[in-house]
């Protein structure tokens, strides 16, 4: 089995974490950098990511996460929050960053800037929020697979009250909304789920080759 498939076969949605095992600072740094390098539409990255290791904060979030033990037992809780709305500033910030990173005068990027603004800024607020959430999921998936390469366990979670997360973490005033959560750490030996075969559609059922 090649390593690409091995990593994805090894990974599963961990139900029980070992609270005594913590992700090292070095591995966390690698995970965050892998996430930072994720693809996003136009490269705009219209989201923010909260990395929570503080136990008191995790305890506050557990009751609004269906009391799932992963929230408090995992080493870190990663909250992906999409931009609820945006204006021209989203594109302007990206253009400024591009200009500085690539040593290109910002006026040379005006055509691209105007193009992005024409496609994005006039969208309805709900459409913008849906789009930014999709971008957050791209980074979310990338983090989950990077963790598998480091043999760090994860559990993707949508079972939480987003409005309560927004309140506890102060997201609303930052124009952010909790989109999806990923707990990371190391599986407990008592987690029986790790021994179960993956249940997925067959290749024939899932793919159509044209």
TrEMBL record:
Molecular-function GO term, any one: oxidoreductase activity
Keyword list, A-Z: Flavoprotein, FMN, NADP, Oxidoreductase
Keyword check for Kinase: no
Protein transport keyword on record: no
Superkingdom per UniProt: Bacteria
Annotated Nitroreductase domain residues: 10-186
Cofactor dependence: FMN
Cleavable signal peptide: none
Family (UniProt): Belongs to the nitroreductase family.
Annotated protein name in UniProt: Nitroreductase
């Amino acid at each position: 089995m090649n390593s690409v498939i091995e990593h994805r076969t090894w990974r599963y949605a961990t139900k029980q974490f070992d609270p005594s095992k913590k992700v090292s600072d070095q591995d966390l740094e690698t995970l965050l950098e892998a996430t930072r390098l994720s693809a996003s539409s136009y490269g705009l990255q219209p989201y923010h990511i909260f990395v929570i290791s503080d136990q008191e904060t995790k305890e506050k979030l557990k009751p609004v996460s269906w009391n799932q033990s992963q929230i408090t037992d995992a080493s870190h809780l990663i909250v992906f929050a999409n931009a609820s709305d945006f204006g021209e500033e989203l594109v302007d910030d990206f253009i400024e960053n591009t200009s500085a990173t690539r040593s290109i005068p910002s006026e040379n990027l005006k055509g691209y800037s105007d193009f992005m603004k024409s496609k994005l800024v006039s969208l309805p607020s709900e459409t913008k929020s849906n789009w930014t959430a999709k971008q957050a999921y791209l980074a979310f998936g990338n983090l989950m697979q990077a963790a598998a390469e480091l043999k760090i366990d994860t559990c993707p979670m949508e079972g939480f009250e987003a409005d309560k997360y927004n309140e506890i973490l102060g997201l609303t005033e930052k124009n952010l909304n909790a989109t999806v959560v990923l707990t990371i750490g190391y599986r407990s030996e008592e987690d029986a789920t790790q021994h179960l075969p993956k249940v997925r559609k067959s290749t024939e059922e899932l793919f159509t080759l044209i």
